[in-house]
Amino acid sequence: MEVFTKERLAQVHERIKPYIHETPILSSALTNEIAGCSIFFKCENFQKMGAFKMRGATNAILQLSKEEQQKGVVTHSSGNFAQALSLAAKSLEVPAYIVMPSSAPQVKKDAVKTYGGKITECPPTLKDREETAQKIVDEKGATFVHPSNDIEVILGQGTAALELLQKKPYLDIVITPVGGGGLIAGTALAVSLFSESTKTIGAEPFEVDDAYRSLISGKIETNESTNTIADGLKTKLGDQNFPIIQKHVQEIIRVTEEEIKNALKLIWERMKIVVEPSSAVALAAILKEPAKFKNKQIGLIISGGNVDLGKLAELF
């Protein structure tokens, strides 16, 4: 396992600062009253392209040599990372090749194109996505960047928690949603390096509880179905982020679809900010287990705000 230090994560933060937003930290007296604790929302829904993934994508590209940057980067993604890598690459004048499943929403394809990503569509299976990406790597000499299972991506994602701890150093717990594992692994690293007294907890839908089961079994588990409104959490853990999660994440709390919807509604109605369902999973976990969080100081990473407005009726 790689050695991670305060200095390394701080260097990552300095490296990407010119290309990202330092997102606001919000709180709500009513939400605190309902939850029975003090929650500080690190709002990555206000990040460039609307999600935390801009951080990791930017760091991954900046770590490449000039020659590698000229040949471009490639990833496979149906959502936020496709947009993040496209925008980060555009900011750095690097070609970005994005493999997207044919089933990806048109709104997300349009966003990738707006950010300058060159889309190659493929059938909607992981095998097809990986083979298509590899073909581009072979043809273009581009560097593959995984959305969540890449150390430089993970470190980039950890800078959100680093910023949170710089402003709120006395947090008892930092909680994030868990999908592919990049955000929670990066968060857990930042917490372990910069706060001896803070715990990291993950939140996950019952419908895609592979990370919860992976921590129990000690090996990476998969999901047989992905029937959740938290569409950003349907991916599985990887061999780069899972060891970090095993070492530094205290537990993962699972929530129902109804609990996610209730938390999403609370954020939208009371905080007046647009967040995607995946972000609400973390608040749902706090509301589900009030005794665990009672009177605690909680940092919560709002992962993103990219909502498909055409599907609002399905959310509630």
Automatic annotation (TrEMBL):
Keyword Lyase: yes
Domain Tryptophan synthase beta chain-like PALP as annotated: residue spans: 17-304
Keyword match Secreted: no
GO BP term, example: D-serine biosynthetic process
A molecular-function term among this protein's GO annotations: ATP binding
InterPro entries referenced in this protein's UniProt entry, alphabetically: TrpB-like_PALP, TrpB-like_PALP_sf
PANTHER family listed in its UniProt record: SERINE / THREONINE RACEMASE FAMILY MEMBER, SERINE RACEMASE
Name of the protein described by the UniProt record: Serine racemase
